[in-house]
Design a protein that fits this description.
Number of helices: 3
Distance between the termini: 38 Å
Number of domains: 1
Shape: globular
Order of helices and strands: HHEHEEEEE
Largest sheet: 6 strands, antiparallel
Length: 167
């Protein structure tokens, strides 16, 4: 049951990074309100505990990201935020070498999901960060805003997060 979360997180990062970028890789996910941890089994390992997104990344203002449509990363309304994030964590997005962190927190009645993929096996992108905001309606959770940014592996922005394109 928890495997789809890992797969969906990976898929979302790949789609996010893939917009105008070479496609990234694997995903694992951790969800929680701030410091809560849940177990998300991966395709290869049972009962794998995935790390939450680092606090300094969660504190990044939305202005440091490129705004995108949630549909660009395959996120649509669903009964739960976990189900809405499932496409980002699909098995097709899972590749060797990458690690994924997932944190979902509530801020002012809005659920905010941050997915960070690190150690991406790509020659220009080292990491990707997707943020999606959800609002609750009687029918379920609706994505209202989405954002992406990448950490370049080389070039003028090497080792830095950027809303731009890596070279």
């Amino acid at each position: 049951m928890m495997r789809w979360r890992t797969v969906a997180a990976g898929a979302a990062l790949l789609v996010l990074i893939g917009c105008g970028q070479p496609q990234p890789s694997q995903t694992e996910g951790e969800q929680g309100a701030a410091s809560q941890h849940e177990e998300f089994p991966s395709d290869d390992r049972e009962d794998e505990v995935l790390a939450p997104v680092a606090d300094e990344l969660l504190a990044t203002p939305n202005a440091a990201f490129t705004p995108i449509e949630p549909s660009e990363v395959g996120v649509f309304a669903a009964p739960t935020v976990d189900e809405a994030l499932a496409p980002l964590l699909s098995p097709e997005q899972h590749e060797e070498g990458a690690s994924v962190q997932l944190s979902v927190r509530e801020t002012d009645g809005v659920q905010v999901a941050d997915i960070v993929r690190s150690d991406i096996p790509d020659d220009s992108i080292a990491a990707g960060h997707i943020r999606i905001e959800f609002r609750q309606e009687p029918e379920g959770w609706f994505p209202t805003n989405a954002y992406r940014r990448v950490m370049c592996r080389r070039g003028a922005n090497a080792g830095q997060w950027t809303a731009g394109v890596c070279q």
